[in-house]
Design goal:
single chain; globular
């Protein structure tokens, strides 16, 4: 028999399972299951209670349904007997976090709590805790908390502590009922193996766990005396990436059709788990996972304080190296928004006549333009700024429009803006003394060759690409192979099971030169609107939230 493992990637709108051969990383079958409830952003399911602006929730049953539906379908597609499967690994969006009882039961599934928004898991892009994040940062800075430097000087509204503090502020009764506050990445592992675990990745990047400790009780009490016990809801021994969390329970075996007792890997984050799938686990290799948002993960043998990063964590990507994380909260989401709201019907007709979807059509039209011909520059903040400003009260900007501006020109300006945002992140790394020696791209946006070439030109760097269309799921499968004992560590497994594609996007010198002055304009606007010269975007955000 040939040993196989299963990787499951839980995304924003769906989950996907892939069956992978342990000996060479070949992906032999896969299946996708769409969440019934998707991202809950307007009203609670069932009750219809409306949600305020900047909220984004999920429903735990959707995650269970991925396990029940996608795993058997992936096995069937692979034509691999379940008896050949030796392990299962999972990854999740982060920080997607939920309140539960001590046995792992989500509060939203308890009688009487279906109409309480704070009882549901908060999706990574829940940005309604910006006020709490501001408080966390101000108090930490005033007290000189040493851990703040590991996060570039600012904690994000997306992370565990800000979201937990929001629950306390807005629904203190529910806060008290929550015996656990847990990342979905760890919760789904609990469902599979029956054991509560906490992985070093989410704890380090999203849970402010540094140097073997969380923020002190005194600090938490300074935020709010009632918040002093928050770490009690998190506290649990941390497990290393690639470790074995436990064995598949009889209940989970019946749900998936897999053998009881196979290895269940410690949970992980979708972006970080992609690095081994892309064979990018050595110092200086930066992986950009480009989809609805973009996450940048970088392994390094150097520890530095990098302003505005999401964090630096020991062993956060692979053991023995420092793992850095940065990101952009909106990328593919921005393009999707534009295509669904700002394109005339005639463009849709033309795209259909050409046999292209609207993104392919806009990209083809945009690609025909010389660099800078549209006279536009945009800021990619439609979902706020994750790095390097760490401010989700910011919003998108596009300057230079005239009555002659065409949709494809605006589309190109938005693509370029996201590339400028990535260049800002890379330059911030290198200015802090953390070299970036290679850029590797993964994620759904790889299929857009125009976009990828723009990035290469703007960055003035070649961009290699992952060889798998299911990078996170493949990465989870690699971790499952290590947890099952088939490889000694993740780096060894990545060398065998990881995948690189043949394409490398190389910068065109003429276009790269033309982009430099536009990028300088982007930086000027970035600092003007993002660093306090103008607070108009914050005022607009406050008015929208108040309305």
């Amino acid at each position: 028999m040939a040993a196989h493992v299963i990787g499951i990637d839980f995304g924003t709108l769906s989950g996907r399972a892939v069956v992978v051969r342990v000996s060479d990383g070949a992906e032999v079958g896969s299946a996708v299951h769409e969440y019934a409830h998707g991202a809950v952003e307007r009203a609670l399911p069932g009750t219809g209670r409306p949600l305020p602006p900047s909220w984004a929730l999920q429903v735990p049953q959707d995650w269970r349904d991925v396990v029940r539906e996608a795993v058997p379908k992936a096995l069937a597609a692979a034509d691999v007997p379940a008896s050949d499967v030796v392990g299962i690994g999972t990854d999740f969006t982060a920080c997607t976090v939920l309140p539960t009882l001590a046995d792992g039961t989500p509060l939203c599934e308890l009688d009487g709590l279906a109409d309480r928004p704070h009882a549901y898991p908060k999706l990574w892009k829940h940005h309604a805790a910006q006020g709490q994040a501001d408080r966390i940062n101000a108090v930490a800075e005033a007290r000189g908390e040493p851990w703040l430097r590991r996060y570039g000087g600012r904690i994000s509204s997306e992370w565990q502590f800000a979201k937990g503090l929001q629950v306390l502020d807005e629904d203190p009764e529910l806060y008290d009922r929550a015996e656990r506050w847990i990342e979905a990445a760890d919760w789904i592992v609990w469902e599979l193996c029956g054991a509560e675990t906490r992985n070093v990745c989410t704890a380090g990047y999203k849970g402010i766990h540094q140097d073997d400790s969380y923020p002190s009780r005194d600090y938490l009490a300074a935020l709010d005396p009632r918040f002093a016990d928050f770490v009690d809801k998190l506290r649990h021994p941390l497990s290393p990436l690639g470790g074995r969390a436990g064995s598949l329970t009889a209940r989970a075996a019946a749900l998936t059709g897999l053998p009881e007792g196979i290895a269940v890997a410690v949970g992980n984050v979708d972006a970080h788990v992609t690095a081994p799938a892309a064979r990018a686990v050595e110092p200086g290799q930066l992986v950009a996972i480009m989809g609805t948002s973009t996450c940048h993960v970088l392994s390094s043998d150097q520890l530095a304080e990098v302003p505005g990063m999401c964090g630096v964590v020991a062993d956060g990507i692979v053991s023995g190296l420092w793992g850095y994380e940065a990101g952009q909260s909106g990328v593919g989401d921005i393009f999707a928004w534009f295509a669904s709201t700002s394109v005339p019907p005639s463009y849709l007709d033309d795209a259909a006549a050409a046999g292209r979807d609207i993104h392919e059509h806009l990209s083809a039209l945009a690609a025909a333009q010389p660099v800078g011909a549209h006279g536009l520059v945009a800021l990619d903040w439609h979902s706020g700024n994750r790095s390097v400003l760490v401010d989700h009260a910011l919003s998108g900007v596009i300057l230079g429009q005239t009555l002659a501006t065409r949709p494809e020109e605006q589309y190109r300006a938005l693509v370029e803006a996201t590339a400028y945002g990535t260049r800002m992140i890379i330059e911030t790394f290198e200015a802090a003394g953390v070299p970036v020696t290679e850029v590797v791209a993964a994620g759904g946006l790889l299929k857009n060759a125009f976009l990828m070439q723009v990035y290469a030109d703007v960055l003035r760097r070649p961009i290699a690409v992952i060889g798998s269309a299911q990078g996170p799921a493949l990465g989870s499968a690699i971790h499952a192979a290590v947890a099952a004992g088939h490889y000694t560590d993740v780096r060894t497994a990545a060398a065998v099971m990881g995948s690189r594609g043949p394409a490398v996007y190389r910068p065109d010198a003429e276009r790269a030169d033309a982009y430099d002055p536009i990028y300088a304009d982007y930086r000027e606007l970035h600092d003007h609107f993002g660093r306090g010269a103008s607070n108009v975007l914050h005022r607009l955000h406050a008015r929208r939230a108040g309305a």
